[in-house]
Amino acid sequence: LFGSLVVVGGIWVMSGVSTGPSGPAHSNLTAWAMCQQYVEARLKAPSTADYPWGYSKYTKDLGGGRYRVSTYVDSQNSFGAKIRTKFDCTVKYIGSSKWKLENLVTR
Predict the structure, then answer these.
(1) pLDDT at 25
(2) β partners of residue 14
(3) How are beta strands 11-15 and 4-8 bridged, if at all?
(4) Nearest to 11 by CA among 96, 104, 86
(5) Neighbours of 86 (CB within 10 A)
(6) Distance (Å, rounded) from C-alpha 17 to C-alpha 5?
(7) Cα(69)–Cα(28) distance, rounded to whole angstroms?
(8) Residue ranges of the chain whose pLDDT lies below 70
(9) In CA terms, which of 9, 42, 57, 85 is 20 to 30 Å from 22?
(10) Do 77 and 44 contact (CB within 8 A), yes or no?
(11) How far apart are CA 41 and CA 85, in angstroms?
(12) How many CB atoms lie within 10 A of CB 13?
């Protein structure tokens, strides 16, 4: 799943891939993918990012096109050591295959 990243007035907006007219344009899976992109934008080595398997147990539909993803990513830091970063990401589907990052907390 590939998209594009645009910063508009301090708000991050990403374009994702819609499932088309036969299904909803947003889902737990697309929210998971959008959060991965937002998280990877903050990593030192995004190409080394490893997420846990099974998006459904880490993604919650909050209603109204809003989703929360709470999980972790393993990736290399600037010294090449693999570290685990926990994160909570809240995104909202705003239409036309676009997503808005509402909140991203890493720890």
Answers:
(1) 81
(2) 5, 99
(3) antiparallel
(4) 104
(5) 11
(6) 13
(7) 9
(8) 1-24
(9) 57
(10) yes
(11) 13
(12) 16
Give the whole-angstrom CA distance, residue 28 versus residue 99: 13
Distance CA 107, CA 96 (A): 32
Name residues whose C-beta falls within 8 Å of residue 54's C-beta, 6 or more positions apart in sequence. Answer: none
For every residue of the chain, DSSP letters joined together read: ---EEEEETTEEEEE-----TTS-S--HHHHHHHHHHHHHTT-SSGGG-B--S-GGGTEEEEETTEEEEEEEEEEE-TTS-EEEEEEEEEEEEEETTEEEEEEEEE-
Q: How many residues does the chain have?
A: 107
Tokens 């080595």: give the residue.
45
Q: Give the span between the Cα atoms of 11 and 102, in whole angstroms.
A: 8
